[in-house]
Amino acid sequence: MSVKIAPSVLAADFANLQKEVEMLNASAADYIHVDIMDGMFVPNISFGLPVTEAIHRHASKPLDVHLMIMDPDRYLPAFRKAGAEVLTVHVEACNHLHRTVQYIKDLGAKSGVALNPHTPVGVLENILDDLDLVCMMSVNPGFGGQKFIEATFDKVRKLRQMANERGLTTMIEIDGGVNQANAPLLLEAGADVLVAGSFVFTSKDPIATIKQLKEIG
């Protein structure tokens, strides 16, 4: 299976967001990754429903919406309506994770669960069978442009082993500090989807950069 690339619009030029989305439409990207931050679960505020809706209006790629927010159940229907095809919540932000995952499925979206760097993959033991995607945070959530945390490789290997032992096709997504140097190692460890923000949008030719990442897999 070839690697899937999900550029994060958190690193895009917000003053030219339509143009940036159209650029992603023309690229080899598989998803558009949309980071939602509430200033409570993470120490930053990004954007919310109106911007997500605007991105969806111009996007030809599916929206991979990453909810870095407390009590995400409150907003799942609204983000689904705004265009999310994948809805990812944080295990650390959900009191009743199984219920939340079922809610996402009932809304007709793909179910994702994200893990912060300090959270062991073992917490997914009793929910993994219900997940379409696990988003492994390879930086501390809240800000773009951070340095990749090396312990991520071992976590990916452990999670891939868990999934393989159960015969699951759950996708493993890596979010944070992804670049051309660590991408091959992540794929070797078992990753399927690479989120890339600053690495794509600060490059001289984002379309070429996405293509290069895509060709690694």
Summarize the structure.
The protein has about 220 residues and is α/β, with parallel strands linked by helices.
Keywords for this structure?
217 residues; alpha/beta; 8-stranded parallel beta sheet
Describe the model.
The protein is α/β, with parallel strands linked by helices. It has a single domain (4-216), classed as TIM Barrel (Alpha-Beta Barrel), CATH 3.20.20. Helix content is 33%, strand content 20%. The protein has helices at 17-25, 49-58, 76-81, 97-106, 152-165, 183-189, 198-201, 206-216, and strands at residues 4-7, 32-37, 63-68, 84-90, 110-115, 133-137, 171-175, 193-196. An eight-stranded parallel β-sheet has the order 1-8-7-6-5-4-3-2. The protein is globular.
Helix and strand succession? Answer: EHEHEHEHEEHEHEHH
Q: Identify the strand order in the major beta sheet.
A: 1-8-7-6-5-4-3-2
Radius of gyration: 16 Å
CATH architecture: Alpha-Beta Barrel
Q: What are the segments in which pLDDT stays under 50 over at least 5 consecutive residues?
A: none
The span between the termini is 8 Å
| CATH top-level class | Alpha Beta
Largest sheet, if any?
A: 8 strands, parallel
Number of DSSP E strands = 8
Detail the topology: elements first, then pairings.
Elements: E1 4-7, H1 17-25, E2 32-37, H2 49-58, E3 63-68, H3 76-81, E4 84-90, H4 97-106, E5 110-115, E6 133-137, H5 152-165, E7 171-175, H6 183-189, E8 193-196, H7 198-201, H8 206-216
